[in-house]
């Protein structure tokens, strides 16, 4: 039983303590560089760095890579799956592992590289119910020269804007309102040609109010279910009537 105990000095006195009672808290362990792999994989990497034979270290490193691949099945769909695993292996070793990698060994600077900032258009949207893309389209149309192509683009834009307008306002909207919005959003750089008209029915252009088709389908489905229930009720009633008629004949 001697091997089951560890001598610990506490306040100058020797006290015997079982091994299973020793505390091993995570805050006393080394940092996990990639927590998604867990503590055991990091301990395997630590063991790799203690192997003196280079050939054996390379063989064990490939075994660890295989285990890492099983723990990250989602990475298998990526083109550079094996390359990422080798990079993760070096990262977990704090770039101190000396093995023969089939890929270039990464440098510690890659962890400190900051991504390039994404440019955000902070210009306020003039009409939020149309969106920012409408303003970009209007700027594009405003640069076009007057002609049939520009007129066709204005008409297509007006049809789309009417669709966006009806998403937020279920009432009908006149063509004049849409044309005024186009001119106002373009800072009057676009002049809507006189006589330009949109179709009276939005459905003619393949657009419809949001939820209209869905509500229509639900209504039709409700009608079909009602008919099925009615037919089922009539069949049950007819079967009960036939049974009662047969019972009456048998009694006579």
Structure summary:
This protein has 252 residues and is mainly alpha-helical. It contains 7 helices and 2 strands. Strands 1-2 form a two-stranded antiparallel ribbon.
Give structural notes:
- The protein is mostly helical and 252 residues long.
- Among the domains are: 32-111, no CATH class; 132-205, no CATH class.
- Helices cover 49% and strands 5% of the residues.
- It has helices at residues 38-48, 54-71, 81-92, 132-142, 148-168, 175-185, 212-251; strands at residues 5-10, 13-18.
- Strands 1-2 form a two-stranded antiparallel ribbon.
- A hairpin with a 2-residue loop joins strand 1 and strand 2.
- Helix 5 packs across helix 6.
- It is flat, with a radius of gyration of 38 Å.
- The termini are far apart.
- Mean pLDDT is 77; it is low at 1-17 and 201-212.
What is the rounded distance between the termini?
A: 97 Å
* Percentage of residues assigned to helices: 40-55%
Low-confidence sequence ranges = 1-17, 201-212
Mean pLDDT: 77
Q: Proportion of β residues?
A: under 5%
Query: If you compute it from the alpha carbons, what radius of gyration comes out, rounded to the nearest whole angstrom?
Result: 38 Å
The strand order across the widest sheet is 1-2
The SSE order reads EEHHHHHHH
Return the structural class. mainly alpha
Largest sheet: 2 strands, antiparallel
Number of strands: 2
What is the overall number of helices?
7
Rough outline: flat
What is the secondary structure topology, with strand pairs?
Layout: E1 5-10, E2 13-18, H1 38-48, H2 54-71, H3 81-92, H4 132-142, H5 148-168, H6 175-185, H7 212-251
């Amino acid at each position: 039983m001697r091997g089951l105990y560890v001598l610990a000095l506490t306040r100058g006195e020797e006290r015997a303590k079982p091994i299973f009672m020793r505390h091993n808290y995570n805050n006393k362990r080394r940092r996990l560089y990639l927590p998604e792999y867990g503590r055991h994989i990091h301990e395997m990497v630590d063991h790799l760095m203690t192997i003196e034979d280079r050939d054996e270290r390379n063989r064990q490193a490939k075994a660890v890579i295989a285990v890492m691949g099983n723990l990250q099945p989602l990475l298998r769909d990526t083109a550079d799956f094996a390359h990422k695993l080798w990079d993760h292996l070096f990262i977990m070793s704090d770039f101190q592992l000396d093995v023969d990698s089939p890929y270039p060994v990464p440098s510690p600077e890659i962890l400190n590289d900051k991504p390039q900032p994404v440019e955000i258009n902070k210009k306020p949207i003039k009409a939020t119910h149309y969106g920012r893309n409408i303003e970009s389209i209007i700027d594009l149309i405003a640069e076009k020269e007057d002609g049939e192509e520009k007129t066709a683009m204005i008409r297509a834009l007006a049809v789309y804007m009417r669709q966006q307008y009806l998403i937020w306002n279920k009432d009908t909207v006149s063509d004049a309102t849409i044309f005024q919005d186009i001119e106002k959003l373009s800072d009057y750089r676009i002049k809507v040609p006189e006589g330009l008209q949109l179709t009276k029915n939005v459905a003619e252009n393949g657009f419809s109010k949001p939820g209209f088709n869905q509500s229509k389908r639900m209504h039709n489905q409700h009608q079909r279910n009602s008919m099925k229930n009615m037919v089922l009720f009539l069949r049950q009633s007819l079967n009960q009537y036939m049974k009662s008629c047969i019972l009456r004949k048998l009694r006579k």
